[in-house]
Design a protein that fits this description.
This is Odorant receptor. By secondary structure, the protein is mostly helical. The protein has one domain. It is elongated.
């Protein structure tokens, strides 16, 4: 069991999203299909970003701010985080290599700790992805009923202030633009969920190392205390003592490795988590602006 195979959800989300973040400790590349998927996906995101930026020049400022800025902030957040991880690729590979070394420990307790730590997070992450996707679909489909009442549409009729063609445009163009916006938002959400899942997976695996250390230490001393009979203690003291010392030495080495992994993880993700925090604050500010504008209207 290693970093790549321990969570199929993390592995497939990394592929489907086109993030293609490192999943192994070597320089092995992803298959051509997934690399092509990544290039096409990033091309769509770039085109969407250009359309949103153009919207600031052709769409009234209040609509651009309310409906377009959040998407731009998310695009910038995802892009910066992924670029940051790629620039630290050697560090990520070293981190994965050390994690794999620890995960290869043939210990039932390690497997139990892994299951206990990773399994409860699977459902919330899936829920996060599904709810975000459904919300994006609902949000992007809001203007579609206008096609029942109008034949000519303008930038203001679009839910997302993007500029892909000159206004006015026909029903077909209006529907097509909304479909493109919908696909872009779903793909963007998938990329964000995938990178969040990747970082969460790293944090959880480091947490597993510390939980294993604490539980293993308790287990070692519990086994040592089982020799409570004086004669058994006198007879088996030397053998039991040597066994306990060896187990403690091995555990100390594992603990030192876990501390080094924690420091490596801090170096890798500290900036990313700070960016997520700042982005969250900005999104709340934009939501406040949207709520205030609705109340004023």
């Amino acid at each position: 069991m290693d970093f790549r195979d321990i969570s199929k959800l993390n592995r497939w989300m990394n592929l489907i999203s086109g993030n293609l973040l490192p999943m192994s400790s070597d320089d092995s590349s992803f298959p051509f299909f997934w690399r092509l998927n990544s290039v096409v996906g990033w091309s769509f995101v770039l085109a969407y970003l250009c359309g949103l930026i153009a919207g600031f020049f052709f769409v009234p400022g209040d609509k651009s701010l309310k409906d377009g800025m959040i998407s731009i902030v998310i695009i910038m957040e995802v892009s910066v985080i992924i670029i940051r991880i790629y620039t630290q690729k050697r560090l990520v590979q070293e981190l994965i290599r050390k994690l794999n070394d620890n995960l290869h420990i043939q210990d039932e307790m390690m497997q139990d700790v892994l299951t206990m730590t990773l399994k409860p997070m699977k459902t919330p992450l899936q829920f996060y992805w599904v709810v975000s996707t459904v919300a994006a679909i609902v949000w992007c489909c809001v203007p579609l009923p206008l096609t029942l009442h109008k034949n000519i549409f303008y930038y203001l009729d679009l839910q997302s202030p993007v500029v892909y063609s000159k206004e006015p445009f026909s029903v077909t163009s209006f529907v097509l633009i909304n479909v493109v916006v919908l696909l872009n938002n779903i793909y963007l959400i998938t990329k964000k969920v995938a990178v969040d899942m990747y970082m969460t997976h790293l944090v959880l695996l480091i947490t597993v190392q510390h939980l294993y250390t604490s539980q293993k230490l308790v287990s070692i001393f519990r086994e040592g205390n089982q020799l409570d009979d004086y004669e058994d203690l006198h007879k088996d003291y030397s053998k039991a003592g040597r066994t306990m010392v060896m187990a403690l030495k091995t555990l100390c080495q594992h603990h030192i490795s876990a501390i080094k992994l924690t420091l490596m993880l801090k170096k890798l993700l500290s900036l990313n988590f700070s960016l997520i925090y700042v982005n969250g604050v900005l999104r709340f500010c934009f939501l406040a602006v949207m709520i205030l504008s609705v109340n004023l209207d």
